[in-house]
Design brief:
Helix content: 25-40%
Mean pLDDT: 90
Radius of gyration: 29 Å
Strand order of the largest sheet: 6-15-14-13-11-7-8
Low-confidence stretches: 79-97
Number of strands: 25
Length: about 675
Amino acid sequence: MTAAADPDRMPKPCSRVVVINDDPLILKELLKGLNAAARALDNPFGICFAGARTGAEGLRQIQDDGDVQLVIVDDRLAAATQGRRHRGAKGSGRGAPAGAPNLAQRISALRPEIEIYVLIEKTKADQVVDSLFAEAVHGYFYREEHDYRGMFRILNAQLAERARTPFFDALRSYVASAKDAWHTPGHFSGDALRGSPWVDDFYQFMGENVFTTDLSVSVKTLDSLMDPTGVIADAQQMAAKAFGARRTLFATNGTSTANKVILQTLIKPGEKLLLDRNAHKSIHHGVVLSGARPVYLDSSVNRKYGIFGPVARATIERAIALHPDARLLVLTSCTYDGLRYDLPPIIEAAHDAKIKVLIDEAWYSHARFHPELRPTALEAGADYVTQSAHKTLSAFSQGALLHVNDPELDDHSFRENFNMHTSTSPMYSMIASLDVGRRQAVMEGYKLLQRTLRLATELREQIDSTGAFHSLRLEELLPREVKGDRIRLDPTKITVDISACGMTVDELRDELFTRFNITVEKSTFNTITLLLTIGTTRSKCSRLYDALRRIAHERRAPRRLYRAPVLPPFTELRCLPRDAYYSTGELVGLLDENEQISERLVGRVCADQVVPYPPGIPVLVPGQLINDQVVEFLVRTLRVHGKVELHGIVFQGYLPAIRVLRAHEQKRLSADFAKQSAGRRPAAQR
């Protein structure tokens, strides 16, 4: 057994239970009995008990102490959240406002992962149990029984249930059984590599368990991702509970696949959807695959920093009013730079129009586990949410979560579309990482995010103190058109203005990488973006601050930075994206024989998706009309920013070209599209 797997050498958890009772004698007795039970009995989770005399004091402990895992509240606690006890004339507490249910709601709103138990009188059980369980209460104990060992065992079992990792446990158990493999994968638990003079270095580098956990659907005890009925189904149900969804599926091809699955399930060919033009390219791929008729919503733009923000709420509401026949609204929250919508009113407006809502939360999977980051899209009422658990939680790359809250979902269609995109040979270690990532999030996510948010605040102050770098605040990041939309900022994304440091952004990134061994998340022409997660440590923050401080002290003269070309507005669709994409098409150059901007593309219809990265927003989608602004933007981007990737551009030798519809294809598809548009337009708009 390796040191990492030795239970005697693993860090021990601490699980604090807060007992809230405003009678000091009863509270003292409870704590004495429960802590004695914790010391006497097997206590793998490090359970210990702490007291609070008022609801307000209990809430403070729950907020300040990330090790609090459970709460016990006395049901006689009246007006608990005001921090005092209101008693009747005889001091019985009758007629006082119900403190325990109110407090349970407050605790659940603060930390939804915490289980709450209530102390009640046995003689009054029938009166209070039903009302208690209408609140966020998980169980109750009889006050007069003094069965401290029994209470401890129940609380320990509750923690054990929350901490379970059904798939990871089954995977680890199977590997420990050392079965002989006569099935795929062909490396046979690493036997094909181990000891080889040619590839043993790879085996040693990756480690034994990478290969022993790389298994096959032939191992029935590990369930099937395509038709889960065992440990994968169990793990997915636990994830749904943790994230607040009706149903959750594990995706091993990233959020990209999850987005495509949802679009293919909900949208039939020719049906309309509203989508943020700033959406990830997987959404645009989903439009092609589903045959959808998209209505693109231009995102807001902060031109000073080259940052694309949310779609203005007025734009979304206008689109909902103009397109009541739309099936789906797709938005990204939060954005790459941490800007997130005020989702509840937007989702409510869509639902009032009978439009389903998909929120791409690829960069926001951690939000459920800290109140400063909520409400999440699921809490705001979204029907579908996709999350990259590998981006901000601890899952392996490509590990993603697909959450469903839509009660009208067609289960059969959903499963068929999911299986269409899911490999029949998934990576079992990736599934295990999703299972373990969920456990970490519910057991210590709040504690870790408390640390992360604190480090983010400190790092912003340190960056600003350099004098050459400035961490942008929400008001500086917000484009003008969304200033009044109650947009919020995820503090774990820090965008840094580098314009005063005397270096171009490319020079700064190279300097950080080669001299200080630091890699940043992304950049614009005058900013870099830093991503903090539950894995961020103070030492990493210190090294980054030291690097920026040293660069600042070298006092280079500020340089004029070239502002990136502004993405032109969306033009118009001339045919369905799917029809354009599957056309034969032809390549037409962006430049003429004199390497000047060509006029031949103006008025043509694009057949592919053309995406400059960064920022990753399509300048053209299949079926879109090309105008002179689009051509000029692409040429300027190629000439001035040689390091920007332009996906969708085809080079004929050294000359860039775009695939467009042939003349006869454009004429036919445009005519068909116009007829369909007239037929689908609501009567009031004709």
